[in-house]
Write a structure and sequence with these properties.
about 140 residues, alpha/beta
Length: about 140
């Protein structure tokens, strides 16, 4: 039996980069993988969502439960980085970055916790080196 056989994994931002690598690995280890992002995922079952919308995290978890009946692992990986100095960035762009990179993972965790407690599941949050040393053109990204 494979390590994650019978487990359901939700990966935000699972269509590319680290998220895609995680999705492939979980799938290869037997998990039912669902990715969530703004565009379709050609490789995995997916849910199209915009995590800048504060209602999206609860809807996303509800959809995973409706499809699979369970959630075992939540991987908060989705993120955006907008190239802009602090003085040039609009408040709307600042808020969009914080909503996707910071608020959405918090809301996803809140929505997922009841299901993860049932399954004895886990949460994985990815981060960036820019949390330790920021690029001046990535003010919102580094802050989030």
């Amino acid at each position: 039996m494979k390590r994650f056989q019978g487990k359901t994994v939700l990966i935000t931002g699972g269509r590319s980069g680290i998220g895609l690598a995680a999705a492939n690995r979980f799938r290869d280890d037997g998990a039912h993988v669902i990715t969530a992002q703004r565009k379709p995922d050609e490789r995995h079952e997916h849910i199209i969502t915009d995590l800048a919308d504060p209602a999206a995290p609860q809807s996303l978890i509800d959809e995973v439960i409706a499809r699979t009946g369970r959630l075992d692992i939540l991987v908060n990986n989705a993120g955006v980085m907008m190239e802009s100095s602090a003085e040039a960035m609009s408040p709307d762009r600042w808020m969009e970055t914080l909503n996707i990179n910071l608020t959405a993972p918090f809301l996803l965790i809140r929505a997922a916790l009841p299901h993860l407690r049932i399954s004895g599941g886990a949460i994985v949050n990815t981060g960036s080196i820019e949390g330790l040393g920021a690029n001046p053109g990535h003010a919102a990204y580094a802050a989030s």
